[in-house]
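Hi R.,

Here's the chain you asked about this morning:
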Amino acid sequence: MSLNTPQLRKLWADAQSRPEWATTKFWEYIFSHNAFGGHQWVVSSQQPPTYIEGDLRRVDLVVEKIDENANSATLLFMEAKRANATLDQVQEVEYQAFTACCANLYATNKTSIWAMTCVGTTARLWAYKYGDDYLTEFFPLSDGLSDKGEYIDFSIEVLNQLEYIKQNFVPPKDVFTKKPPSPRPARATLPDGWHDNEVAYMTGTPESLGNAASGGISSGGEALSSQAREQQLTSQATPLVAEQSTPLIVTKIHWQDGQRQYRCSRPDHKNVIVAQNKWVSCDILYSGQIYQGYMYTGKSGTQYYTWTLEVKGKEAER
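And here is the predicted structure, written out as tokens:
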């Protein structure tokens, strides 16, 4: 396998000076022709991190394996920025890969997954497992986060690491014991059309729950009805206990009979439809701390909660 072909030289040169599309084009060629050959591997661009209806987020590259029984599973997410990306943009692309991992694990109930972030023709490889606060560095190992100097240019060494990932579809435990997860950026941003709703459920940290709750109901909803506000004042003497309730994520908002309806996803991926006047703003006790959120009590008495009534990725109201 030659790494010095006219095609690679052309794609490599383009990725040094052209926008993000050239970076994605370079790595898509590497993935398809050098790293993930074979009929069982599918390399796709601009794919959602989940199969949940209404997920408008798009990952730059997704590597998927489809077995002989037509079962498919995602091996790796790749997010890219152009070669001259700023520090903030590198931080954004790493956080974007992290949120894609969280979304996939939430939707599939898997425990861990691989990720890759690329800045031009340079790359870093990561692993993420359920419950961790952020990505764990896999290659190269370093102490720098969102640092272009820690990225390594494409080489046979990068291909060797991708081969290891291909042979270890689920990141081995020792990947996470060699080095603790990197610290999560305090003020990471996301591109338009992206949301990080699943982060709170995957990490369960005070920071993530606070960020989720801070979304309030702006953009995605409206002020709670007077009926709901009265319920809030009269019904909640003690906080809702998260561990004894079922979390929900709002995936779509639509109108029915003159009232907003919230379609929500449960952890078992079943949908729950909640009318606007059924939500009650409340305090939620999570891991010993109190956070603000919203609760809904179903007809069977099951208590549900969500940190925000906003659809950040926003599936438009229809």
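One quick note: The two ends are 52 Å apart (CA to CA).

Cheers,
M.
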